[in-house]
Amino acid sequence: MNTMFDGETTEFDCPNCGQKITATVGRLKRGDYSCPNCGAVADTKELNRTLDQADRDAAEAERKIKKILGG
Ligand SMILES: [Zn+2]
Q1: In whole angstroms, what is the distance from residue 52 CA to residue 7 CA?
Q2: What's the CA-to-centroid distance between 48 and ligand 1, angstroms?
Q3: Ligand 1 centre from 1 Cα, in Å?
Q4: Contacts of 33 (CB under 8 A, 6+ apart)
Q5: CA 43 to ligand 1 centroid distance, Å
Q6: Ligand 1 center to 49 CA (angstroms)
Q7: Percent of the chain clearing pLDDT 90 (strictly above)
Q8: Pairing with 12, which of 23, 42, 58, 68 sits 20 to 30 Å away (CA)?
Q9: How remote is the CA of residue 33 from the centroid of ligand 1, in Å?
Q10: How many CB atoms within 10 Å of residue 42?
Q11: Strand 20-24 to strand 9-13: parallel, antiparallel, or no bridges (unpaired)?
């Protein structure tokens, strides 16, 4: 599923070697991201859970805003 966050770039440290990794959220969500330095595969499960929650929160916020604005 594509979300509004897919195009966002995120930065994190490789849990294995500490290399700073920059990748788009959409790329990470596919779950096949490996560190360019050591080849460790990033665990994107927690990221996906967080994104799902953020997506629901954003959708809920949008509904509330539209209600307030009468849209
Ligand atoms: Zn690494």
Answers
A1: 15
A2: 20
A3: 27
A4: 21, 23, 27, 41, 42, 44
A5: 12
A6: 22
A7: 31
A8: 58
A9: 11
A10: 19
A11: antiparallel
Distance between CA atoms of residues 49 and 5, nearest Å: 13
CA 58 to centroid of ligand 1, rounded, Å: 32
Q: Extract the tokens encoding 10.
A: 């995120």
How much is the pLDDT for 1? 56
Over the chain, what is the mean pLDDT?
Answer: 86
Q: What is the DSSP string of 6-71?
A: TT-EEEEE-TTT--EEEEEHHHHHTT--B-TTT-PBP--HHHHHHHHHHHHHHHHHHHHHHHHHT-
Q: Which tokens is 24 given?
A: 């788009």
